TrEMBL record:
Job of this protein: Catalyzes the acyloin condensation reaction between C atoms 2 and 3 of pyruvate and glyceraldehyde 3-phosphate to yield 1-deoxy-D-xylulose-5-phosphate (DXP).
Protein known as: 1-deoxy-D-xylulose-5-phosphate synthase
Name of the gene: dxs
Subunit structure of this chain's protein: Homodimer.
UniProt KW keywords: Isoprene biosynthesis, Magnesium, Metal-binding, Thiamine biosynthesis, Thiamine pyrophosphate, Transferase
Gene Ontology CC annotation, any one: cytosol
Any Pfam family: Transket_pyr
EC number assigned by the record: 2.2.1.7
Molecular function, one GO term: magnesium ion binding
Similarity-based family: Belongs to the transketolase family. DXPS subfamily.
Organism encoding this protein: Phocaeicola coprocola
Entry's Gene Ontology BP terms: isopentenyl diphosphate biosynthetic process, methylerythritol 4-phosphate pathway; terpenoid biosynthetic process; thiamine biosynthetic process
Positions with a binding annotation for Mg(2+): 152, 181
Length: 635
């Protein structure tokens, strides 16, 4: 029988204040217990695994040295904040993480005062933390420290560079910690490197440096421009002596590191020594993603969010999916490769999620035909636009919620020029346990007003293949295809590749009492509810698959407007401005006056939980649709 894990120190930490009362010699044991807690919990309750294991020592050191929550720690992204949650009063509730009505999947200010900002999307920490640092100075809170913890993947996002640029020119005392987990720690750092680190972080050195700077300012020798030049020179000199170059050399940001991110004593020491330094500063630490769990250290991508696993053997518990319909993303990936073999203009583009969207299938077969551009959604879209302008045909796959970050790029760099770019929006609709930062429910509403776009959503896997084939035909212009996370409904999905008439919907079922209009895979749920309603009540319900939100099938809508006095629209996007709104506008513009009941995502953010439960909460699961059908029929 498995022995329960003992958390002798961790069970006494109900807040960071309790952690700070411990002697520093206890910190390695706290780190061990914290790591064991996360491994044990996530083996049974899946979540983001490797990222949090990689920053255990940093998390402990930060809360040990800084006076949180008065001092602000901004995490970027929230994948790495599980240890932070456990140390900040949520230890006993951590078993509810990502569950319906349980702890949020990412830091959330509504959940804890220690969660300083929402951080479900990457690269916002420097901008946020700079804003907080400026606000602290404005309010005279000179003792408040602000720290941004950013991973190297997030540092590749454009917003991070915008924040850095502003931080280098705005008076502030911000501390940026760059968690670099993409390269192994060089344990033999060398005498000169260690000497420079010790010198640059020495309290005596920095006190002397500050006093000299202050005197030179008073004597009129050192103005602001000269001070910035000295910082740039200092950074450049360090890069020559340490034989390491970094992007901060030319900025007015003091650079420290690299430091072993798994030496909690070294981290605590350097944080203590640099936290009160004036001006912006960056601490570069090297960590190993998945640290402390060998399988995760060796396969970081797989163990980013591995699902349930055996913590003793490292074996992942994978359900038998043979005979089940495929994931939409796999249909996309396999169809893209099939199309690319026949059309040499096709190029794949994705921002840091080739496995998550199955772009890795094309990457493996044709590595020169696919690009992972890193966490840079805006760049991914504009990069695709540049290739399309020169005659290539990019399939740019971005999760629906992340495509929000590239809105201007879609308009300015794709739509205005009618460029042949296929924008594939994976994870459309409610995505489940990742919660409101990741739900792809806004895409229909925010894309619909943009001229020159074709916007489509497939009813099933075969329709996805046909839409992808249609999108790569000549002169289609910007073509959006959105589809959900998870499995489809067909096992025989490998249909012939045939064109779909753009802007043409389908009547799936005729009827006389009521018309139901759906778009996308939620139409399958509606079809079941319609069958159930007709079996239990004496009624006749028509079902139309709109297929295209833009251009609308006006012939189909005229047929519906002339024939039916009662219409229900069903979509897995927001009601405000979505497909139902488009139908209402059409009916009004053409002087039809049916009663239209719109079903979709209500006007508030939907929290995290199992997908089926969330659809039920929104009333668009089979039961909710059935109840609405009966209510409308009886009204």
């Amino acid at each position: 029988m498995e022995q329960p894990i003992s958390y002798e120190l961790l069970n006494k930490i109900d807040s960071p204040e309790d952690l700070r009362h411990l002697p520093i010699e206890s910190l390695p044991e706290v780190c061990k217990e914290l790591r064991d807690k996360i491994i044990d919990e996530l083996s049974r309750n899946p979540g983001h695994f490797g990222s949090s294991l990689g920053v255990i020592e940093l998390t402990v050191a930060l809360h040990y040295i800084f006076n949180t929550p008065y001092d602000r720690i901004v995490w970027d992204v929230g994948h790495q904040a599980y240890g932070h949650k456990i140390l900040t009063g949520r230890r006993d509730r951590f078993c509810t993480n990502r569950k319906l009505n349980g702890l949020c999947p990412f830091p959330s200010p509504s959940e804890s005062e220690y969660d300083t900002f929402t951080c479900g999307h990457a690269s916002n920490s420097i901008s946020v933390a700079l804003g907080m640092a400026v606000a602290a100075a404005r309010k005279g809170e000179e003792n408040r420290h602000v720290v941004a913890v950013i991973g190297d993947g997030s540092m590749g996002g454009g917003l991070a560079f915008e924040g850095l640029n502003n931080a280098s020119s705005t008076p502030n005392n911000l501390l940026i910690i760059l968690n670099d987990n993409n390269m192994a720690i060089d344990r033999s750092v060398g005498g000169m490197k260690q000497y420079l680190l010790n010198l640059q972080t020495s309290e005596g050195y920095n006190r002397l440096r500050y006093n000299i700077s202050k005197k030179l300012h008073q004597w009129g020798v050192l103005n602001e421009e000269r001070r910035k030049s000295l910082i740039r020179f200092n950074n450049s000199l360090k890069s020559v002596l340490t034989q390491q170059q970094n992007i901060f050399e030319g900025m007015n940001i003091r650079y420290f590191g690299p430091v072993d991110g798994h030496d909690v004593f070294a981290l605590a020491k350097v944080l203590k020594e640099i936290k009160d330094m004036k001006g912006p500063k960056l601490l570069h630490i090297h960590t190993i993603k998945g640290k402390g769990f060998k399988p995760a250290e060796e396969a970081a991508t797989i163990w980013h969010a591995p699902g349930i696993f055996d913590k003793e053997t490292g074996e992942r518990i994978v359900n038998d999916t043979s005979g089940m319909p495929p994931l939409f993303q796999d249909v996309f990936g396999k169809t893209l490769l099939e199309l690319a073999k026949k059309n040499d203009k096709i190029i794949g583009v994705t921002p840091a999620m080739p496995t998550g969207c199955s772009m890795n299938i094309l990457m493996k077969a044709m590595p020169d035909r696919a690009f992972d551009v890193g966490i840079a959604e805006g760049h991914a879209v504009t990069f695709s636009g540049g290739m399309a302008k020169e005659g290539l045909l990019p399939f740019c796959n971005i999760y629906s919620s992340f495509m929000q970050r590239a809105y201007d790029n879609i308009i300015h760099d794709i739509a205005i020029q009618k460029l042949n770019v296929v924008l594939c929006l994976d994870r459309a609709g409610l995505v489940g346990e990742d919660g409101p930062t990741h739900h792809g429910v806004f895409d229909l509403a925010y894309l619909r007003p943009i001229p020159n776009l074709t916007i489509a959503s497939p009813y099933d896997e075969q329709e996805l293949r046909r839409l992808m084939y249609t999108a790569q035909l000549p002169d289609q212009g910007p073509f959006v295809i959105r589809y959900p996370r998870g499995r489809g409904v067909l096992t025989n999905w490998e249909c012939p590749l045939e064109a779909v008439e753009v802007g043409k919907g389908r009547k799936l079922k005729d009827g006389s009492d009521l018309a139901v209009i759906t778009i996308g895979p939620i139409g399958n749920t509606a079809a079941k509810a319609i069958t159930e309603a007709e079996n239990t009540h004496n009624c006749s319900i028509a079902h139309y698959d709109l297929r295209f939100l833009k251009p609308l099938d006006e012939t189909l809508l005229h047929e519906i407007g002339k024939k039916f006095s009662r219409i229900i629209t069903i979509e897995d996007g927001v009601l405000k401005g979505g497909m139902g709104s488009a139908v209402l506008e059409f009916m009004s513009d053409n002087n039809y006056t049916p009663m239209v009941k719109r079903m979709g995502i209500p006007d508030h953010f939907i929290q995290h939980g199992p997908v089926n439960a969330l659809y039920s909460i929104c009333g668009i699961d089979q039961t909710g649709i059935y109840n609405t059908l009966i209510h409308i029929l009886n009204s």
